[in-house]
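FIELD: query
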Amino acid sequence: MPAPARSVAVPAVSPRLLAVALLTVGLLLVLAYLVAFDQGAISQSGMYMHELMHDGRHLLGVPCH
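FIELD: result
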């Protein structure tokens, strides 16, 4: 004879909290993509993002050499 089914209470999640969590996860995924792209894990050359950030530093007047 099977055991009777138990009901499990699932806590309610507010839509605002869910949106913030999804936005945070999305931003972290974009950041991981950019870092992987820069390090050559995604692109063949791996230098496009590095050069873009390098030029951006120069445009902001930050010395990097």
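FIELD: remark
The chain has one domain: 15-60.
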